[in-house]
Amino acid sequence: MYGNDFGAPEEASGGGLLGEVEAAEAALREAAARQRRGAPASDDDLAGFFAEVVEADQKIEPRDWMPEAYRKTLIRQIAQHAHSEIIGMQPEGNWISRAPSLKRKAILLAKVQDEAGHGLYLYAAAETLGISRDELVDLLLNGRQKYSSIFNYPTLTWADVGAIGWLVDGAAIVNQVPLCRCSYGPYARAMIRICKEESFHQRQGYEILHTLSHGTPEQKAMAQDALDRWWYPSLAMFGPPDGESTHSTQSMAWKIKRFSNDELRQRFVDMCVQQAEILGLTIPDPDLRWNDERQAYDFTQPDYDELMRVISGDGPCNRQRMAHRRQAHADGAWVREAATAYAAKRAAENKEKVAA
Ligand code: BYC
């Protein structure tokens, strides 16, 4: 939560994260103002130049030389993130026509529209790495690229919309704020804008749950039920434990990832405990307790076997989500055709003007 509407201390409410986004933005501007070492002296110097730029916390830009594996890793991660934003519109979109008031409906519409925008920023960032949007969409539709496990769970009640905002957007922000300092410029810049918008998303979800948990006993029970169902899938969003994370070591060396999956998961848990207290809701973990030595909460890990099943396509809603996306893509074919024809017409007109 980003703000003090609910009387939470700033740090406990996650307000510090928005400050981190602003600091990352300032660092980006400062790095851009600093002179980078000039171009590499020769082709033999390409890898050295890349390593120096990363080491100096400056940004690798699309025209710079980069190791092929760095490019592929970025495409994989950015595309997965873009697909998550687009698929992530479905569980909440499910409630647009059933939102409990006009105000709630307008807010939810704007939020879901924001997710589409985030998908677009991210597809555009991936395209700077030499892959087209069409290729990326094909990779999603034929199951060769992934999207976040979290969107394979159903939204059964209105409180789930609150839980998605509070927990899912909350986990997303904890994961994404460090990406504002990613070594690849276009991704870092996209993440700054996304994180600022996500902060409102998280806050709107928290406000829905706050209203429900301070409402009738039935409403409070609905909020608790949503927390019970979304807690562990939200913890699983951070990925497998560090020991089983295949990409973390290399991604951290390249400064794509800045913290490990477990470090971010811990940070998320520590942030949520006080927020749940303010809501008057109970995190469904009997072993959740403060560890004075570690200065962090001990907690029960999510079921990583379940995570792997969901990632491999066998979650409660995987088939439904992909079928819906394929249908939406097919239904949108005429829009793409019309846009392509219009662009061709404009290009021909411009060519004629230049020739005249
Ligand atoms: N779901 O080596 P690891 C949002 C895969 S959307 C699915 O640790 P990495 C929002 C992983 O890809 C939130 N797959 O990987 C939108 C890898 O498989 P491959 C999306 C997962 O990349 C709408 C394998 O498991 N956010 O914000 O170092 C509404 C091994 O993992 C998951 C992002 O995408 C998972 N949960 O770390 C509301 C953020 N976890 O590719 C909110 C950007 C792991 O080798 N992404 N896998 O076949 C990242 O930060 C990183 O990619 C991850 C995983 C932390 C997710």
TrEMBL record:
GO MF assignments: phenylacetyl-CoA 1,2-epoxidase activity
GO biological process: phenylacetate catabolic process
GO CC annotations, alphabetized: cytosol
InterPro entries: Aromatic_CoA_ox/epox (IPR052703), Ferritin-like (IPR012347), Ferritin-like_SF (IPR009078), PaaA (IPR011881), PaaA_PaaC (IPR007814)
Gene3D superfamilies: 1.20.1260.10
Domain of life: Bacteria
Listed transmembrane segments: none
NCBIfam families: PA_CoA_Oxy1
Name of protein: Ring-1,2-phenylacetyl-CoA epoxidase subunit PaaA
Species, as recorded: Micromonospora avicenniae
